[in-house]
Design goal:
This protein is of the alpha/beta class and 292 residues long. Helix content is 40%, strand content 14%. Helix 8 (212-217) links the parallel strand 8 (203-206) and strand 9. Helix 9 (233-245) packs antiparallel against helix 12 and helix 11 (263-276) packs antiparallel against helix 12. The structure holds ribose-5-phosphate.
Length: 292
């Protein structure tokens, strides 16, 4: 193993130079993957913009019923026109989402903790690959706790899912988890996103931070940004805009959509930033027009 004490501090991220191994495919780091992987990735990342709006409503896997997600059967249909991908558990999808929804599916496959646990970092793989295939999942989402007590098992879960995914050409979405005590700095996110990418995940979900463009540059696969706790709508749109300006290939947003008083309009405005080059100010003006 490399000598950590003698580690040279990396500093040249060449943020202005595009990813060099892009080839003709629109998803970063995926040019040399096989047809099946590329088909799934194209169901997630729009081939025209290269970006995605994921709607995350998998919170029930550890939070139970959450404010804004009480009635998935009523919420999901109003959001479908404005999102590209649904990120959810198999229970939520099978029970409450029509298979004719026409959206990409990011299937939550790790589980094992709940809000009743002090330490959420201990999970297992709760969904086998056959069920992901049956559901025609476009990617499988695994929570990954770098630097937490459960790091070893979550890296094990991630590896098992990636190995199964390669057998059947289903991409894996590595979700970088952030515990209450863990730092949310570019130093941590560079470490965590790169570890998850080096394990073989084809997509990484993480949080926005200062120097985000360096996190993106050092990660050889696309990053989608989590929304995090509910913000005022204008601040959530600014988060989305800064993420995209920093090189994210989309948002994987939950509470800032489903806890808004105007979830469909928020999803629509996020989409304008992600796919149509709107600034946060333009998107907020559109939101005000839509809701007034
Ligand atoms: C959490 O682990 C889940 O992956 C959520 O889907 C994720 O946190 C995104 O939702 P939010 O935008 O509410 O943070």
């Amino acid at each position: 193993m490399a000598d950590l004490d003698g580690k040279k501090v990396a500093k040249d991220y060449a943020v202005d130079i595009p990813f060099a191994n892009q080839g003709s495919f629109h998803v970063k780091g995926a040019n040399d993957l096989d047809w099946g992987m590329k088909k799934h990735l194209s169901n997630i990342f729009n081939p025209d913009s290269g970006n995605t709006v994921m709607f995350a409503f998998d919170h029930g896997y550890f939070m139970g019923s959450t404010a804004g997600l009480e009635r998935l059967d009523l919420l999901i249909p109003i959001l479908l026109p404005y999102v590209d991908v649904l990120m959810a558990t198999r229970g939520a999808l099978r029970s409450s989402v029509a298979p004719s929804c026409g959206k990409g599916i990011a299937l939550r496959v790790s589980s094992g903790s709940s809000m009743l646990n002090e330490d959420l970092s201990h999970e297992l793989v709760a969904v086998d690959i056959e069920d992901a295939i049956r559901m025609n999942a476009d990617c499988m989402a695994v929570q990954t706790f770098i630097g937490a007590d459960g790091q070893l098992s979550s890296i094990g879960n991630l590896s098992n899912v990636i190995n199964a995914g390669f057998r059947y050409s289903i991409p894996t979405l590595g979700v970088v988890a952030v515990g209450k005590q863990m730092e949310r700095t570019d130093r941590f996110f560079k470490l965590a996103t790169r570890i998850v990418a080096e394990m073989g995940a084809q997509i990484i979900k993480t949080y926005y931070c200062d120097n985000f463009e360096e996190v993106v540059a050092a990660c050889p696969v696309p990053i989608v940004v989590a929304g995090g706790k509910k913000l005022p709508e204008n601040e959530a749109l600014t988060l989305a805009y800064r993420s995209m300006q920093g090189g994210a290939r989309g948002l994987d947003m939950g509470r800032n959509i489903f806890q808004s008083n105007h979830p469909a309009e928020m999803a629509q405005c996020i989409g304008k930033i992600v796919h149509n080059g709107y600034t946060d100010k333009e998107a907020y003006e559109l939101l005000l027009d839509l809701i007034n």
